[in-house]
Write a structure and sequence with these properties.
The complex is a heterodimer of chains A (about 260) and B (about 240). With about 260 residues, chain A is mainly α. Chain A is about 70% helix and about 0% strand. Chain A has one domain. Chain A is built from eleven helices and no strands. In chain B, helix 2 packs parallel to helix 4 and helix 4 runs parallel beside helix 5. The radius of gyration of chain B is 20 Å and the shape is globular. Chain B starts with 6 loop residues before the first strand and ends with a helix. The chains are: A mainly alpha (about 260), B alpha/beta (about 240).
Chain lengths: ~260, ~240
């Protein structure tokens, strides 16, 4: 375990500038592929938010207070989790051309995927926080509590992405499992409804899903100005760490096998 | 040019298998052995040529020597400080500028940021694209991209250089220049493993040759006799057909 960690740090130090360059290149390429570029990072979740808003307030006629903000936070966090994992699942085989020309520790590729999606998330989150006072939510010192929540989600996203990236090249079927699993998880994470409306027993079961817990925490901090539970965050962080280590160990083991796969 | 250098690479009965097909039924997953039985040594400072027909396993062998893949049986030892495959335009991204692509490609090929900084001016000068270096390479002609790719690769300078076919690239003038730069690298006391279809190239540049047939070493040693046996065999096969 400790030796695995040491190796990870060594690899990261040696390849730090390479990772930074790849992230920059990917963000830059993504924003230059379209006319309005990075504006899509904002437009995309906002459009999704309005779609859900219409469905749930006009069609189903269920609405709660601050529903727009409530929805937007859920969608934004979910999007980070979902795109990064699917992005990561393709990250190793997607670089086949590179892998066959030069030896690189393959964990680099999912790390680049995670960091790229994290930058996009953080930019939108920052703008959201700045815009909050316009909607009647003053920014206060309690918003600092967002930092550990973001850190916990970052580790969760990174852990899941690295693990997915490490296995999908050898067992491509996992990609289908992931797609379906993520869809199910989307409906169970309380993105467009409030989990606390359910009976307590069911609630406890649903809160075994770390994304449901995190999304609720973001809302508590941003919309109610309350503090997240640090014990719960600690549990999520440890769990994510283990998953990430497992994924890293798999990439170490298969490092010279991936270039042979199609 | 010497053959008495220290041992830098040693392969002992090496085999490399590629998985073939995916299925839950193991009988449909028989691997393909691209290399069956390769034993050879490379010494510091020499240039070794690998010859063989298409599909003999030459590219797989270079990938193995570069540490990109590992042997599935047998043993491979690499005692050098760095071995890399000469790769043109490695990791180039169209939206980035020429300068950014040189940095990215250099990092990918194992240079540190400082090493890149030291070499970047000479890379740009060799590629002859000074005035366009800060433009995105998507706007380059393919000739310009080729020159930049070659120039970056040739400046990487690993202890052991692996070359798959490419000697000269670009238009007539640049081809002459790039071939000369390449030959200069090969003829210096650098260790080189060179794969080529051109028997003339092997004869001109190599100290030793290894002839591979279907993943096995058929003959190795002196360039002239190995190349002659290879040619005799190729001609005999052609005559039969």
């Amino acid at each position: 375990m400790i030796s695995v960690m040491k190796k990870l740090l060594e690899a990261f130090d040696r390849y730090r500038s390479l990772v930074a360059y790849k992230v920059y290149a990917e963000l830059r390429a993504e924003s230059e592929r379209t006319y309005v570029g990075f504006m899509w990072w904002f437009v995309d979740p906002i459009v999704t938010m309005f779609v859900y808003y219409l469905v749930f307030t006009v069609v189903i006629k269920s609405r709660s207070e601050n529903f727009l903000g409530f929805l937007f936070i859920g969608i934004l966090c979910w999007r980070w989790f979902h795109t990064s994992i699917m992005h990561g699942a393709n990250s190793i085989l997607g670089e086949r051309g590179l892998m066959q020309q030069v030896y690189l520790p393959k964990v680099i590729f999912p790390i680049v995927a995670v960091l790229t999606d994290t930058v996009k998330f953080l930019i939108v989150l920052l703008v959201l926080i700045i815009a909050l006072p316009l909607f009647g939510f003053p920014i206060g010192i309690t918003h600092l509590a967002l930092l550990p929540v973001v850190l916990a989600q970052f580790l969760l996203v990174a852990g899941c992405t690295i693990l997915a990236a490490s296995i999908v090249p050898v067992v491509p079927d996992i990609r289908m499992v992931l797609q379906n699993g993520l869809q199910m998880m989307f409906f169970l994470s309380g993105i467009f409804y409030d989990i606390s409306l359910f009976p307590e027993k069911l609630q406890n079961l649903m809160l075994l899903n770390p994304m449901a817990v995190l999304i609720r925490m973001y809302r508590e901090v941003l919309l109610n100005g309350s503090m997240p539970s640090f014990t719960t965050l600690g549990v999520i962080i440890s769990f994510s760490f283990l998953i990430g280590m497992l994924g890293f160990a798999v990439t170490r083991r298969l490092d010279v096998v991936y270039p042979k796969l199609r | 040019m010497n053959t008495a250098g220290r041992l830098v690479m040693e392969l002992t009965s090496v085999g490399v298998a590629y998985p073939r097909g995916r299925s839950v039924f193991p009988s449909r997953r028989t691997p393909f052995w691209a290399l069956q039985d390769i034993s050879m040594q490379v010494f510091a400072g020499e240039t070794v040529g690998i010859i063989g027909r298409n599909g003999a396993g030459k590219s797989t062998l270079l990938r193995l020597l570069a540490g990109i893949i590992a042997p599935d049986r047998g043993d491979y030892r690499n005692l050098s400080r760095g071995t890399s495959l000469l790769s043109l335009q490695l990791g180039f991204i169209p939206h980035l500028s020429g300068r950014e692509n040189v940095r990215l490609s250099g990092l990918l090929q194992g240079l540190s940021r400082k090493e890149i900084g030291d070499r970047i001016e000479s890379i740009i000068e060799f590629a002859e694209i000074e005035e366009f270096i800060d433009e995105p390479i998507a706007s380059y002609s393919s000739g310009m991209r080729t020159r930049l790719g070659f120039s970056t690769a040739i400046h990487v300078d690993p202890e052991i250089l692996l070359i798959d076919e490419v000697l000269g690239v670009g238009d007539a003038a640049f081809q002459k220049k790039s071939k000369a730069a390449m030959k200069e690298r090969i003829k210096s006391d650098r260790t080189v493993v060179l794969v080529s279809h051109s028997v003339g190239t092997i004869k001109e540049l190599c100290d030793r040759a290894v002839w591979i047939v279907r993943g096995r070493v058929r003959q190795q040693g002196d360039v002239t006799s190995t190349v002659d046996s290879y040619l005799a065999k190729v001609n005999a096969t052609d005559a039969k057909e």
